[in-house]
């Protein structure tokens, strides 16, 4: 593709339809990750949903209503924690392809139960269905980025994994506008919730079908000892014969890394010990923990889930108006995610994209916080605003979009790339599983706490809190995060052998100098050229 970063060492045959099909089939797992985030937020804001599940019960206090809403919204995150925890075992045991199929089955079962609750108003079915679906969603963010990182060419790995994040925002857009259309069409009580949420089931079925045309990860096949099939699959994905130097050197690099890892970690317990005891792996874990904590509590993920409520806080009171603004927010996030995917993450690097995104988030959160201090009555019905207050309110709404742009450009795209590429092969599923478990645990806490934070800290105080977290994230990313763009998965090991205080500052130069995959490829190519010349 013309917009992909080119590598003169990569044969043109490596850019083939099988590679792009695999990227597409696993990237749209982002749909499963994001659809519910947009649909549950918009569904919960509808009067019909609130009546059906008691969210407008006059006997409940504001705090009790906030707790009930938080429980409904966050139950998917609870299930996702369980899914992410067991995801590493499933992904490594049955492979990347069958893990996707098992995940799709959980999604269908869970959302069928959840939608059935719309008929009788059973909160128990809501919780059970959303928990089951969450187990599938928790696995999607593990197996998707891992497969994409393992099968992609090194100089387009950022593009491949960021396609997952990009498809997540396309799912957000579809979810928002599906909910808006159901309201505009004045669907009946239960249909206004059921119809848009059917998208979750449709997407799961499509992903399940597409998985049968994808090729299993050669790196996983090598890990489980199926060397012949690993070679065959790598040849198909690269579009080259087994004797081609490019294929041989990649296979040799994978096998060499795997042999070194197996010497150190021959069991599950040994792998966990290796993860927590070895300094290089502890640093990797530190990157996973830091990226998940700082990204989730920067506030932008809560805007995705509670977008209609955020727009209501800033003065948009009409239901159609809030949902339209929310849908436009999804489009902004999708476009910025695609900008990061196509242009920034591989051309300009992960770190620059992340720092730019965090800076935009900080500016947006700080503006909104100051505005809410200056004009706390903006969301009060019947309040009269001066022309300057109206202009400031418009600016605050614009800052919601700026925050979404920065989030999609930075944290949301890069958190998947970071966790899919930093771990060695024998720790990739375990490390990714722990990272995603922490991700969903924090997202659960964030989505569960936000309604209560608005009451306890006030809306302005909550925005100041998020702004402070973005500052911490900016410093953390600048100092600790290494630049890994353009490096093979096997060559990344050299970066983490540096002293901990140098990894974030010198990682790029060290990784490039140790990219022995390219070195071996060049040596073999020169040898082939000499033989051809001698003939």
From TrEMBL:
InterPro entries registered for this protein in UniProt: MFS_dom, MFS_sugar_transport-like, MFS_Sugar_Transporters, MFS_trans_sf, Sugar/inositol_transpt, Sugar_transporter_CS
Compartments (UniProt record): Membrane
Source domain of life: Eukaryota
Main location: membrane
Family: Belongs to the major facilitator superfamily. Sugar transporter (TC 2.A.1.1) family.
Keyword rRNA-binding: no
Signal peptide (residue range): none
Keywords of the record: Membrane, Transmembrane, Transmembrane helix, Transport
Top-level taxonomy: Eukaryota, Fungi, Dikarya, Ascomycota, Pezizomycotina
Transmembrane parts of this sequence: 19-35, 68-91, 103-121, 161-178, 198-215, 285-307, 327-347, 354-372, 392-410, 453-481
GO cellular component: membrane
Protein name according to UniProt: Major facilitator superfamily (MFS) profile domain-containing protein
Domain Major facilitator superfamily (MFS) profile: 22-485
Species in which this protein is naturally found: Zasmidium cellare ATCC 36951
The keyword Coiled coil appears for this protein: no
Membrane association type: Multi-pass membrane protein
One GO MF term attached to the UniProt entry: carbohydrate:proton symporter activity
